[in-house]
């Protein structure tokens, strides 16, 4: 029987997850949608490896602290991997900015989970080889790579077995490939109320151990999302779930790879995030402020972390996806459902402008902003309070 690891990216700032919708999912204490989503895995006994960004954890700590109890009280169900605080695009981060974002995310995860794997899950599978070296020097156990996210001519150059990837300066770091087709099978199971597509995909995996990667926000984006996820989990018949800490892998050394294989981490295309170059000015302004991010005040830090979020660009540059959904289990025909992009670009501009004003000495702009009561100001106010606690 194939053992498999369910690695879930969860980004509260995802480009299709409206801020008001996310905050509403945290309302209700133990009966919040977010708590009910977590309890699905507890009730059905399904192990899951959560990759919550630090920003997501901040929101949960401030707006739904009851969820922390569910996570910490069930170490047999929940394991975490390390994430940055902000779901950024690492390829455009300088080393100081990358390291600070990583450090804050790791501290947030350590405070939320009782069981943490020291594998790092990079947002969008974007990572420079300098950052591989930073992770290796920081003692992380490994990283993930997803060949299905790359151009077709690059996919075959990524090993499909665990291997050691080269970083700058002669460093090496264990690297686990994920199975891209399992992501598609998971989405198919949710969209069509059809867990058999998932079971077939697992049944056809030839390896003894495989790693699946997927986004976790679907339960809060799709109509009847929690019911769809329950239907998938209850119908799961193949394979045996495992934590990362429960699998043992032999990692091929760079010199043992085939001649066509890349020994370094593959550089992900940036095209989808800059398709029409609408955000070039935004990125230029942001880059000029990032020379010494460790000197930011807490209010400047929370604004910078909000502004570097990759989904600021996703929401502007990417089209809203349209998907075919069965409206209920057993329905005859699918309907077309559009996942509209949130106004994350507007939010990014707001935070960037506030950061510029703060750096210019306008001490009151931030306070006026967080008192406005809008969803974004509520979110930023909560994250500001969380970072104050984290940095004490």
**Regions with little confidence, pLDDT below 50 for 5+ residues:** none
**SSE succession:** EHHEHHEHEHEHEEHHEHHEHHHEEHHH
Bin the strand percentage. Answer: 5-15%
**Outline, from the CA principal axes?**
globular
Write the layout of secondary structure elements.
Blueprint: E1 3-10, H1 19-25, H2 33-44, E2 48-52, H3 54-63, H4 66-72, E3 78-82, H5 95-112, E4 116-120, H6 129-137, E5 142-145, H7 152-155, E6 163-166, E7 172-177, H8 180-192, H9 195-203, E8 209-215, H10 218-221, H11 225-234, E9 240-241, H12 280-288, H13 298-307, H14 310-317, E10 322-325, E11 335-338, H15 344-359, H16 365-370, H17 375-390
Parallel strand pairs: 1-2, 1-8, 1-9, 2-3, 3-4, 4-5, 5-7
Antiparallel strand pairs: 6-7, 10-11
Helix pairs in contact: 2-4, 2-11, 3-5, 3-17, 8-9, 8-11, 13-15, 13-17, 14-15
Describe what is shown at a glance.
The protein is α/β, with parallel strands linked by helices and 392 residues long.
List the main descriptive attributes of the protein structure presented here.
single chain; 392 residues; alpha/beta; nine-stranded mixed β-sheet; 17 helices; globular
